[in-house]
Amino acid sequence: MSKQINVALIGNPNTGKTSVFNALTGLNQKVGNYPGITVEKKEGVCKLSRGVKAHIIDLPGTYSLNASSLDENVVIELLLNQNDKDFPDIAVVVTDVENLKRNLLLFTQIKDLQIPTLLVINMADRMKYKGISLDIDYLEEQLETKIALISTRKNEGIDHLKSLITSYKDISIKPCIDIKSIEPKYFENLQKVFPNQLLYKLWLVITQDVNFGKTNRKDFDAVEDFKTKSASDLKRLQQKETIKRYQFINNALKLGQQIDTSQAKDLRSKLDRVLMHKVWGYVIFFLILLLIFQAIYDWASIPMDLIDSAFATLSEWTENVLPPGAFTDLLSEGIIPGLGGIVIFIPQIAFLFLFIAVLEESGYMSRVVFLMDRVMRRFGLSGKSVVPLISGTACAIPAIMATRNIENWKERLITILVTPFTTCSARLPVYLIIISLVIPEGRFFVLSYQALTLMLLYLIGFGTAVLSAYVLNKLLKIKSKSFFVVEMPNYKLPLFKNVAFTVIEKTKAFVFGAGKIILAISIILWFLASYGIGENFNNAEQIIKTEYASENLNENELQNKIASHKLEYSFIGVVGRSIEPIIRPLGYDWKIGIAIVSSFAAREVFVGTLATIYSVGSDDEETIKNRMAGEVNPFFGGALFNFASGISLLLFYAFAMQCMSTLAIVKKETNSWKWPVLQLVIMTIFAYLIALLAFQLLK
Amino acid sequence: MQDTLAQLKRGENAVITDVSSNQIPLKLLEMGCLPGNPVQLVQLAPFQDPMYLNINGSHLAIRRETAAHILIEKVTHE
Prior knowledge:
The complex is a heterodimer of chains A (699) and B (78).
Chain A: E1 3-11, H1 17-25, E2 29-33, E3 40-49, E4 52-58, H2 70-80, E5 90-96, H3 100-111, E6 117-122, H4 127-130, E7 132-134, H5 136-143, E8 147-149, H6 158-166, H7 184-193, H8 199-207, H9 231-256, E9 257-259, H10 267-275, H11 280-299, H12 301-321, H13 326-343, H14 346-362, H15 364-378, H16 386-391, H17 396-401, H18 409-418, H19 427-438, E10 443-444, E11 447-448, H20 449-475, E12 485-487, H21 496-530, H22 535-538, H23 540-547, H24 555-569, H25 571-583, H26 590-599, H27 605-615, H28 624-629, H29 643-655, H30 660-670, H31 674-698
Parallel strand pairs in A: 1-4, 1-5, 5-6, 6-8
Antiparallel strand pairs in A: 2-3, 3-4, 7-9, 10-11
Helix pairs in contact in A: 3-9, 5-9, 11-14, 11-20, 12-13, 13-21, 13-27, 14-21, 18-20, 19-29, 20-29, 21-27, 23-24, 25-26, 26-27, 29-31, 30-31
Chain B: E1 3-4, E2 13-19, H1 26-30, E3 38-44, E4 51-55, E5 58-62, H2 64-67, E6 70-75
Antiparallel strand pairs in B: 1-6, 2-3, 2-6, 3-4, 4-5
């Protein structure tokens, strides 16, 4: 029988914990969610030796067991709950050799829970560079644990780590500090009431304000009565505890670690001087943003054109090869164009996630937080809001989750409320196709007009987010303590493996998540567009033939007339035409109306919807773009997608709240329906008015 | 009157003498902001806020209003 060891990977942020996870599990990993909450759960399997496997959980990064956010709470919840199926046989604490002292604090806390705790000192390749030398044997003795000195960058020490995990039973579980010594009287009383409980565990439960959803709370129910101390007294004890822990750590490091500062090379301050300069810092940040947009627009267009024509060919091939009938039509007119509408955007989304991953991994993102804090605070936001607002350009859902590390509730709420204004990747498909239809080609210096338009749309999104934050800051009357603590990590060259994993994982999640919705919607749409009831639909052929009897139309023209007549009286045509009066002043026809309505499920459905609607009944091999370019406005004549209606559509999509998943996450994170409903109503009305204004002024 | 961390100038070194723990998040204490530990002001953002510090070997940024609750004694190099 094979044996499985449960391993929990724990560590401060920026210690390369994820690299260790990737090095141990390789591709044997999956990313999910903790049940009921939206914290990412990463698990993987690592083969240790013959018949022995390790089940590894990569827990969210945390600075201590005193949780201050939902993510950190996951860590303590698991470690306090022995009945959890993931409860670790061994905790592996990952530390960064350059921040060993601070990183060890968490190590001492976990060891005091009497879980076998192994210490990983990562980034060993930086030791010489920083003039650090370690006496591992001495440290193992002082900290009473086993130490794996590794370098994920050089792929060194991983085997040693594996063998240490295998023999986890040899690791001492003796606590680092005696919690009683902080205030003997208080703790002795506590122990008397709960003679069978570990004191440190009790202490953690008492001091945590956070909810311990699933923890074996009933054991601790009586603890509530034991909160005899005031909050400030408890905090004073926590401070004493922290000082004690640092004494223990300093004691171990005094002889165990030598740092020769004269040997240390200081890349950090050199880079900081430039990247955080009061002028150049901002210029560089702006240039990086510019580079991202140029890449998304220009470089990604090559694979995108290939994908677009490949799907058009596939659609035609299906139609020719399979026997004619409803199923073939469903495939070639419903599913394939619908899927093509999502697959085409993989290159751009991958580029976007690539840049975000590199900015995060390199340590640059924290510098941006620092540079922007003062500016953002003027708008009621925090410097930390920059990260959600930037990752909001990928997707609002992880962005809203990323607000969790904003300590101030008011700043956090405002960030959550305004993040959906930033241009998420789901808007990108809509922007790209409309820009390519209505914005002329040509260049302004090296930048194409189309790329500039896209950049402008991103700026509009960002600007609206910031301005609405300013308004919310004035309107919301919430008092909350303002805390702001950001670690400024070392600069690191991003690891290819980490970046690649992130890009693949996120792109996959996006494509499959959105893909399911799009597939479902395109099947429904195809059905609604292919069937109908009533005289006008069933006798379309007869009606058109009679109507055009006098004109000498060739077979092809006649078929097209019949197809569009049928579409107009199909189920979808009936629905579309009933909403047409509302959207006509914006310059749209009913087909765009349908696309907008289905976009409320998810914005990226827009292109797929139009592709499906336009391809029903058309036999020619054509790309989505060509079909759209050929559409004529039924009321105003001329191309349906012209400059005025195009700009109006772009602005509508820039402002409208059209994403059910985002609303769901806002509900979860704010724990109230009030905020998502307000977002939906206000953003959408605003979008309608702006789009109306744009079309009426430009037409 | 004792100096607070908010009065530290760029490049200056000091030792933390006291923190009013009610005004300081626990997280900051745990990151090394404790009495007796050395602190250096590495850099200031435009408008002098936030402050980029090296506290006990950890590089952190905090806001000026938080720094005002941390008492220090400046260290002058001879």
